[in-house]
Design goal:
This protein is an all-alpha fold. It is about 70% helix and about 0% strand. The relative contact order is 0.09.
Length: about 60
């Protein structure tokens, strides 16, 4: 397969998913869902870990 046939990489942000939903195209929604699952498998639950990190920062700041 030549590079011209590869899909353009999309950043996995909220906008990508909301645009796919708004577009209503089933194939696009399935593709974006697959990309989101791959992103989560690669990077894990970043929002959840960010909240945990913020809690630990607050604890460290409280203990001075």
């Amino acid at each position: 397969m030549s590079k011209s046939h590869l899909p353009h990489p999309r950043p996995m942000y909220m906008a990508t998913m909301t645009q796919a939903i708004a577009g209503g195209d089933l194939a696009t929604m399935k593709q974006v869902a697959a990309e989101a699952e791959e992103h989560l498998a690669t990077y894990g639950d970043v929002p959840g870990l960010l909240q945990l990190l913020k809690v630990e920062i607050a604890k460290a700041e409280a203990n001075g």
